[in-house]
Amino acid sequence: MAQPCLITGYLSALSAQLPAPVVAELADGLGETHLHYLRQGLDPDAAARAAVAEFGEPSLVIAGFAAVSPARRVARRLMATGPLVGACWAAALITGRAWAWPVQPAVVLLAGLVLLASIGLIVSAVAGPGYRSVVRAGLAGCAGVTALDAFLVVAVPLTAPAIGWLTSLALAASLTRLMFSARSLRWCLADAAFNLR
Amino acid sequence: MRGEELKGHLDAMLLAALESGPRHGYAVIEALRQSTGGKLDLPTGTIYPALRRLEQAGLITGSWSVVAGRRRRDYELTSAGRQALSGRRADWRDFSAMVNAALEGSPWPSPA
Q1: A26: nearest CB among B45, B50, B67
Q2: pTM, full prediction
Q3: Which of A34, A35, B10, B89 has CB 3.0 to 4.6 Å from A51, enough for a Cys bridge?
Q4: Are A18 and B68 in contact (CB under 8 A)?
């Protein structure tokens, strides 16, 4: 039986944001809802209107999936731990007089830009309503934070004239976050694998 | 009953709907409607992300089948899901007894 335009339009709106297996599952549910109203004696178009109304706005469904995406969970954790790791590094760099270290200004500028971009991406992954944008922003933000942590863990011991306890604490914080980021990327990839099934 | 009022209870209700055996998303919604006498008034589409969340938490597991040419995902409780449901039920009994005692003046149930 051909689906009414309203249902195909609804599914198209979902397809624009959600992975194919999720849309397939929703299509099955919407099809069952449509059948339910047909059995109640509604004509196909009226049944489609009732089914779509019962399902809720596509934006609501998409926001629901964005809220449970692993990328958002990862972004939330990075947002929660970011200020703590940042505070450790701020204390370590200020007390270690990092401005006197032999570092190219371009490297400092690049690290600052990566930090700002990562913060923006993580905020976007936590607050954004779109599924694809949440996944992309979450993954990119996680990659940015990982790159920054890896840079700090390698560059600071090579550059700093001495490693005080504050620097050791900051290095430990970054190493812990690096392990978390690696595990997070595994969750996100597992989710992507699910979405390819 | 609206979504806001259900906040915090939807997961347990979904687990309860799967207690009797595997169900696909729409069948879960139908089971919830029947068990609540049609009082449940949630946008159907919002149940699916909740099922996904429970699956990610390891409380339910999903498997694909093909029915009438459509891909269908069936869900069933895992052993962790059964334990979680049992815990939620006990919590709910305590909570509802406490609220009843406060609002209705019902006697606080004495421990067995």
Answers
A1: B45
A2: 0.82
A3: A34
A4: no
